[in-house]
Every structure is written in C-alpha cells, then in structure tokens.
Amino acid sequence: MSQEESKTSSVILIGIDNSENCEHAFDYYAKHIHKPDNEVILFHVSDQVQIPTYFAEGMIFAADDIRQKVEELRARNKQLEKKYDAKCTEQNMKHKFFLVTEDPNGPGHAIVEAAKKHNADLIVVGSRGLGAIKRVILGSTSTYVIHHGHIPAVVCPRQ
C-alpha cells in the first residue's frame, strides 16, 4: 500500500482575513467538508505598515505614529488569530495559525506557496465577488489560487 493510499487525514489550508467572505468560507468548510482527522492550517497574509521612503522639506518623521500603527496591526492580527482559534476549538478541529507579512507577488501567491510548504491537500478561500473589470485591474486572490495552485481549491462566493 502506498503512502497516499494509507493516508486517512488531510491538510486543509484556509486563507483568512477580517472579511465576512473569509468567515463564510471557513464556516462552509466546517459545515460541509471538515472531517475529524483533518488538520486545518489557518493562513493570513498580513498588511504592512507603510513607512515613507523619503521626506520633502518640512516633513516630519513621526516615529511614535509608526510605532502606534505597528501595534494596531499586531493587535488586529492577534485578534484574528484568537477569533479563528475559538472557531476551530468550538468545532474540535486540529489547527495551526500561520501569518506572513505581505508577499510582493500578492496574497494569492503566498497562499499557493504556503500550501506547497505545508503539503496541503486542499485550499479554501473566500471571494469578494469582484466584477470582471475590477478583477482584471485589482487582481483576485481566488483567481490566482485557482490558476496557480497545484491542488484542488474551494472558492466560496460572498453571500
């Protein structure tokens, strides 16, 4: 029997952020797909605090403002982790939380790479439901995951 045949559990990577769409995707996974032996990887691509790279005459570098923004971002990320930790615990899901800072190639790329790194069997993401023009201009995380992912993906449209 091969290793693939003997595998009874799956690794599921769920892309999360603070949006209702991601929460809907998580809830869909929990209700319709989750199996008790699955391991859930909660994966968040964090924003970064933007720091000015140059200063014009008269501009003031406010280190305290930057520090405050960094702390606010850390608090939001910690709150997100706690929220999904509670949701997983409530559902008795084996889970881990991973956070990466912004990927220069976009969140879709970060999700696909994380799925490879963690040997995920399935990716679950929410969709913002952008129209065709906005999707072309802004890009789409779910579209990237579908076209570049090496494993099946579930994209849950917004409600």
Q: Count the strands? A: 5
Strand content: 15-25%
Structural class: alpha/beta
Question: Any idea what the radius of gyration is?
Answer: 18 Å
Mean pLDDT: 85
**Which fold name fills CATH's third level, the topology?**
Rossmann fold
Number of helices: 6
The CATH architecture is 3-Layer(aba) Sandwich
Gap between N and C termini: 43 Å
Main beta sheet: 5 strands, parallel
What is the strand and helix layout of this fold?
Layout: H1 3-6, E1 11-15, H2 20-33, E2 39-46, H3 63-90, E3 94-101, H4 107-117, E4 122-126, H5 132-138, H6 141-148, E5 153-156
Parallel strand pairs: 1-2, 1-4, 2-3, 4-5
Helix pairs in contact: 4-6
What report would you give on this structure?
The longest helix is centred in the middle third of the chain and has 28 residues, at 63-90. The protein has one domain (3-49, 61-156): HUPs (Rossmann fold), CATH 3.40.50.620. The protein is of the alpha/beta class and 159 residues long. It contains six helices and five strands, in the order αβαβαβαβααβ. A five-stranded parallel sheet has the order 3-2-1-4-5, sandwiched between helices.
Characteristics of this structure?
about 160 residues; Rossmann fold; alpha/beta; about 45% helix; elongated; 5-stranded parallel sheet
Short description:
By secondary structure, the chain is α/β, with parallel strands linked by helices. It has helices at residues 3-6, 20-33, 63-90, 107-117, 132-138, 141-148; strands at residues 11-15, 39-46, 94-101, 122-126, 153-156.
